[in-house]
Amino acid sequence: MKIIVNSGNVGTPVALELARLGHQVTLTVRTPKPNADWDKLGIRQVPFDINDQASMTDALKGGEAFFSLTPLVENLVAAGTSAIRAAEEAGIRKIVRMSAQSASPAAAIQLGRWHFAVEKAAEDSGIPFTILRPANFMQNYLSFGTPETIKTQTSFYAPMGDGKISVIDTRDISAVAARILVEPGHEGKRYDLTGDESLSNQEIAEIISKALGRKITYVSIPAAKAKEAMASNGMPGWLIAMLSELNEFGAAGNLAAVKPDTGFILKRKPITFSQFVQDHLATFKS
After folding, report:
1. CA–CA gap between residue 172 and residue 263 (Å, rounded)
2. How many CB atoms lie within 10 A of CB 41?
């Protein structure tokens, strides 16, 4: 099968897995650059500009299936719907679209409404589609300065209170996407992808503590302080507002639900947070 995959933390592993399985894979990138590992697997690179529909149409020509994801940008809806229109113009016959856990036309947070708008574009396109709605990524604990403060302060900080979240490893999202792209029977379905456990940040701190063999503390900070920190790091206002809304949503327990879809599709249990920490132990260690 000829499959076009949007690159990224989820998309690139999808492309690698599909290439290893013998599919003809094209990975869309901002600017193609030499990559010997991809070349060995036969992965072709094409430029893909999310702000230029003609660029996207050109990149998708010749493909049968398309793994579509849009980075968190201010024009996410416009970029995402343009990608769907480009798929129509290019003759794509199957779309697997990565959305978000909270997606809904009446979502309490803007991110959920944005993602649903792109879901609707996929549905209205007439192309057989499948929607993936993943929970918060475990890999988020490898960013936002978390490993650094764990190393230097034996603590990490977030404005989440005691809210629990059903975090998922991006490796499981990629595995689900790769399978759905090549398997029949998923058309028209929306899958809620979560891990197999709902954890508070206090429980996450305990898991990290056990793995490191030293006490790690979670510090819940006020929302205003989190906004100040994001602003001091140069984050744009629209993104600060969106992430703050998401944090508040999660702190209220709205991201805690554990769903069976990940295990159902993969025919195994999702990766646990304990396993995730073991796999990235070097990142957390001093």
Report:
1. 9
2. 15
Amino acid 144: pLDDT = 86
* pLDDT tens figures, 240-270: 999 999 999 999 999 999 999 999 999 999 9
Where residue 49 falls (left for φ over 0; alpha for ψ -120 to 50; beta otherwise) is beta
Q: What is the SS3 assignment for the chain?
A: CEEEEECCCCHHHHHHHHHHCCCEEEEEECCCCCCHHHHHCCCEEEECCCCCHHHHHHHHCCCCEEEECCCCCCCHHHHHHHHHHHHHHHCCCEEEEECCCCCCCCCCCHHHHHHHHHHHHHHHCCCCEEEEEECCEHHHHHCCCHHHHHHHHCEEEECCCCCEECCECHHHHHHHHHHHHHCCCCCCEEEEECCCCCEEHHHHHHHHHHHHCCCCEEEECCHHHHHHHHHHCCCCHHHHHHHHHHHHHHHCCCCCCCCCHHHHHHCCCCCCHHHHHHHCHHHHCC
Identify the CA nearest to 275 among candidates 200, 210, 194: 210
Give the gyration radius of the chain's Cα atoms.
19
Residue 197 to residue 40: CA distance in whole angstroms: 38
As a whole number, the mean pLDDT across the chain is: 96
Strand partners of residue 45: 27
**How far is CA 10 from its chain centroid?**
6
Q: How confident is the model at residue 73 (pLDDT cuts 50, 70, 90)?
A: very high
- Identify which of 60, 73, 188 has the alpha carbon closest to the alpha carbon of residue 131: 188
Average pLDDT of 37-56? 96
Q: 157: pLDDT confidence band, cut at 50, 70 and 90?
A: very high
Q: Which of the four pLDDT bands, split at 50, 70 and 90, describes residue 91?
A: very high
Q: How many CA atoms lie within 13 A of 203 on its CB side?
A: 13
